[in-house]
From TrEMBL:
It comes from the Bacteria. One of its GO terms (molecular function) is sulfite oxidase activity. Signal peptide: none annotated. InterPro entries: Mopterin_OxRdtase_euk, OxRdtase_Mopterin-bd_dom, OxRdtase_Mopterin-bd_sf, TAT_signal. GO terms for biological process: sulfur compound metabolic process. Gene3D superfamilies: 2.60.40.650, Oxidoreductase, molybdopterin-binding domain. Residues 65-85 are annotated as: Disordered. Residues 147-249 form the Oxidoreductase molybdopterin-binding domain. It holds the Pfam family Oxidored_molyb. This is TMAO/DMSO reductase.
């Protein structure tokens, strides 16, 4: 490490200590975790508070979800009349739940159109009267960094539909696909091991046939009338416009994404990104920064930020910057009970939502796995120059992003970097 970098880091550390001591975030240590306090800060710097006030709500309005739908034409662009014809309205939808014809499972009562007992929307809602669940989930694409949206998803556990078929044996996987314009080349399919359908891992909600998002019927863009939602999985497992479920004796997956050199069994990763950061500031002017962190299956313990002066370097064998002088940001508290957004009725979490206290409608734990949380920090001012801002997470197991799964094919979580210019 060069002498100039040592001097910069020393000054950076000194300013950081002064800032955190000023606002009571730590004792004598320079980089104690503000997020561990989980307390409302009453005297934030006005510039930082202004940036926090501009943050979007934690839940996304359904119509504002980003769309990465497949199909030519995309099923949600079909006319209302065409969607009725092909079974993509609540009045005309039905689901066949059958044995895989090539790797047969033994079912005593397959649900088929031919037999007149395919599952229709009314029957699904009837099951929902007894079995429906709702839970929060951030929807993220495996190969796109930014989440598509965050919502409260509602539906009937897939296992309840399985039992209707009176399964016997030779069931190892569940395959499912959605409407694909009657074109075999466009079919989009995914799969799960049968044990994930029948039994939920600790802390995870069930796999569901979903028909509501944020208390509203799914829109065609979101996969109406019914889609699959797999809580811990990336978007490709959450197949839209669901039409068929197959129980199979095949021992391996048949996912469309497998043919694209993707890790089809990867679960949501924990990572951080910025939402607001000035591109240019004056020398020694404090720098307000906000962002979000996706809390994956490994949970979320910290968000950290580091500003490096361009031209300076760290040891070449430290490609994930583990020895950098990271500073803990503040993970903002969960929203007030009527501030969740997402076009929820009264902006409040619906009753009986998994992970929330039913009386207070507050999260039982925060940050919540499979959700996003906002973070903020006021970084100390810097001398004139060009800098690079980076942010990262530390998960609940103490692993720093992008570990423990740094590989792109299992989810895009490279450490983000932003340019910052300090000039008069």
């Amino acid at each position: 490490m060069s002498g100039s970098l040592e001097a910069f880091l020393a000054e950076h550390s000194r300013l950081s200590r002064r800032y955190f001591l000023k606002y009571g975030a730590a004792g004598a240590a320079a980089c104690t975790a503000i997020n561990q306090l989980q307390a409302e800060v009453q005297d934030r710097d006005p510039a930082l508070q202004q940036a926090i006030d501009r943050l979007e709500t934690n839940l996304t309005i359904p119509k504002s979800f980003r769309d990465v739908s497949r199909g030519n034409p995309k099923p949600h662009t079909l006319s209302e009349e065409k969607r009725k014809q092909v079974g993509l309205t609540r009045e005309t939808w039905s689901l066949e739940v059958i044995s895989d014809p090539e790797n047969k499972a033994r079912l005593g009562n397959p649900l088929t159109k031919e037999n007149g007992n395919a599952l229709d929307f009314e029957a699904l809602l009837k099951l929902g009267e007894k079995h429906a669940v709702r839970f929060s989930k951030v929807m993220t694409c495996l190969n796109i960094r930014n989440p598509l949206g965050t919502g409260i998803w509602e539906g009937v556990p897939l296992r309840e539909i399985l039992w209707l078929t009176k399964p016997r044996d030779n069931i190892r996987r569940v395959f499912f696909n959605g409407y694909h314009n009657d074109d075999p080349k466009q079919i989009f399919k995914s799969s799960l091991p049968i044990d994930r359908v029948l039994e939920d891992p600790p802390g995870l909600p069930p796999v569901i046939l979903c028909y509501k998002l944020n208390g509203q019927w799914l829109s065609p863009e979101r996969g109406a009338p019914v889609r699959m939602v797999v809580p811990e999985s990336y978007g490709f497992k959450n197949v839209k416009w669901l039409t068929h479920v197959y129980f199979s004796n095949l021992f391996h997956a048949n996912d469309t994404y497998a043919n694209g050199n993707n890790d089809i069994d990867s679960t949501l990763k924990t990572f951080a990104s910025t939402l607001s950061c000035p591109k240019q500031v004056k020398p020694l002017q404090p720098i307000p920064i906000t962002g979000y962190a996706q809390s994956g299956t490994a949970g979320l313990a910290k968000v950290q930020v580091w500003i490096q002066k361009n031209g300076e370097s760290l040891p070449g064998d430290d490609k994930y910057f583990t020895s950098a002088p990271w500073i803990d940001a503040e993970i903002l508290s969960a929203p007030a009970s009527d501030r969740w957004g997402g076009d929820l009725p009264d902006h409040k979490i619906p009753p009986e939502t998994i992970g929330f206290d039913n009386k207070t409608r507050k999260p039982i734990a925060w940050p919540m796995p499979l959700m996003k949380a906002h973070w903020a920090i006021l970084m100390p001012g810097l001398p004139a120059g060009k800098y690079t801002l980076r942010c990262r997470t530390i998960d609940a197991n103490g692993k720093a992003q992008p570990m423990p799964r740094p590989f792109r094919k299992s989810g895009h979580v490279a450490i983000e970097k932003k340019d910052l210019l300090v000039t008069a």
